[in-house]
From TrEMBL:
It comes from Caldovatus sediminis. This is 3-isopropylmalate dehydrogenase. SUPFAM superfamilies: Isocitrate/Isopropylmalate dehydrogenase-like. One of its GO terms (molecular function) is magnesium ion binding. PANTHER family: 3-ISOPROPYLMALATE DEHYDROGENASE. The gene is leuB. One of its GO terms (cellular component) is cytosol.
């Protein structure tokens, strides 16, 4: 069926560079597997600000809503850092998440055998690591009101952000995390600061209630977010699935990236609630940003973007076999010794973005032969 509607939003910085390599994979699937997408491209972030005057236009948002899935690159960069808050490129991704109701951001962190030496931790601590961070992504301090910089009566300024969670927001992301845990190692660790935050107290209570009433077979633990950061950096293999608020999940997933070797390796899927027909909005994006420090040099690692596309194949289209093909192709390229600069190790061959992408397609070709 040729009606898989995909909206591709490359964005800024290395976004378009790594997206080009996914397009190669999409082209291969079309030619060799008869898996065909109805592709449309749009602007987001700084690119959209420059061309359309806003970090995401209403027209692009409408296209995202109409698509079966959105493949997102990354947004932001020094060129737009001086803009007023409401005009910043980052608002592009925040609006997409919020307006499409994409509340569950799944961020797997897997240490591939070939990259165990590239980890920030000793090999013994990370070999075989496979964790899933479920980050709440439409609530919490990212969206809570009141927020802003205001001037107080004495003329001095104060900055305000508000962490708010309703019990329904906590329950729905908790259910996603419990369901994932049930399919994996049956262990869920819920992260909060229930010792200092009211929203954290509610978070812990609600996750506990959902666990007891709906998922009694899943082993649930609670951990304070600061301790979780320390535990991830010292004994990461104790974790299976982690569920956390928007902000804590953001921080912990960048930390998890360091364990796997590089931010350039980590994909993610951001899912909404299924409708009555079982269809859900979904957006796929690497955990990393636009990497202004290496943009334009052709050296960015395209693996996170390619692996995000593999998640898209699995989660939005049920194409498990194709998803695994893409994941295995990436693994084999790395096992074969090719490395972008971010995961470079002694004795390996250093390559740029394009050579890496081409190598993935070559491995796909071999795997499918
Ligand atoms: P970043 O993730 O862009 O980069 C952090 C570091 O990781 C940099 O040293 C970068 O070179 C490296 N890196 C990231 N991706 C890489 C890849 N694929 N290959 C090799 N190295 C890679 O984070 P930052 O520098 O804090 O932010 C830069 C801009 O990106 C900011 O404007 C920020 O707001 C934005 N950002 C956007 C997203 C998104 O679009 N989802 C995510 C994070 C940050
Ligand atoms: C991410 C990014 C975004 C976030 C920014 C760019 C808004 O850091 O996707 O992890 O904080 O959610
Ligand atoms: Mn982040």
């Amino acid at each position: 069926p040729a009606n898989k509607k995909l909206l591709v939003l490359p964005g800024d910085g290395i976004g378009p560079e790594v997206m080009r390599e996914v397009l190669r994979v999409i082209d291969w699937l079309d030619r060799r597997r008869k898996v065909t997408f109805d592709l449309e491209e749009g602007l987001v972030g700084g690119a959209a600000i420059d061309a359309e005057g806003a970090p995401i236009s209403d027209a692009t948002l409408a296209k995202a809503r109409a698509a079966d899935a959105v493949l997102f690159g990354s947004v932001g960069g020094p060129k737009w850092d001086g803009l007023p808050f409401e005009k910043r490129p980052e608002l592009g991704i925040l609006r997409l998440r919020k307006e499409l109701g994409l509340f569950a951001n799944l961020r797997p962190a897997i240490v591939l055998d070939a990259l165990a030496d590239a980890s920030s931790l000793k090999k013994e601590l990370v070999r075989g690591l496979d964790i899933m961070i479920v980050r709440e992504s439409t609530g919490g301090i990212y969206f809570g009101e009141p927020r802003g910089i205001e001037t107080m009566p004495d003329g001095r300024r104060r900055g305000v952000d508000t962490e708010v969670y309703t019990e329904d927001e906590i329950a729905r992301v908790a259910r996603i995390a419990f369901e994932l845990a049930r399919k994996r190692g049956n262990k869920l660790c819920s992260v909060d600061k229930a010792n200092v935050m009211q929203s954290g107290r509610l978070w812990r209570a609600v996750v506990g209630e959902i666990g007891r009433s709906e998922f009694p077979e899943v082993e649930l633990t609670h951990m304070y977010a600061d301790n979780c950061a320390m535990q991830l950096a010292s004994r990461p293999k104790q974790f299976d699935v982690i569920v956390a608020s928007n902000l804590f999940g953001d921080l912990l997933s960048d930390l998890a990236a360091a364990l796997t070797g590089s931010l350039g390796m980590l994909p993610s899927a951001t899912l909404g609630a299924p409708d009555s027909a079982g269809r859900r909005h979904a957006l796929y994006e690497p955990v990393h940003g636009s990497a202004p420090d290496i943009a334009g040099k052709g050296i960015a690692n395209p693996c996170a973007q390619i692996l995000s596309f593999a998640m898209l194949l699995r989660w939005s289209f049920g194409l498990e076999e194709e998803a695994r093909l893409v994941e295995r192709a990436v693994e084999r390229v790395l096992a074969g010794g090719l490395r972008t600069a971010d995961i470079m190790q002694p004795g390996m061959a250093r390559v740029g973005t394009t050579v890496m992408g081409e190598a993935v397609v070559r491995e796909l070709e071999k795997l499918a032969a």
